[in-house]
Predict the 3D structure of the following.
Amino acid sequence: MTHVHLHDGPKVVHRYDLEPLIEGVGVYNLRPPARRAARGQVPD
């Protein structure tokens, strides 16, 4: 799931992964930020 918070400052994006616990129950965990390659570099 992706949540985008728009306000007067920069756009803030949070991404969550659903982790199932038991039948019909789960918890959303905040996904760690993705590393971005510097401009002109190829990502690993």
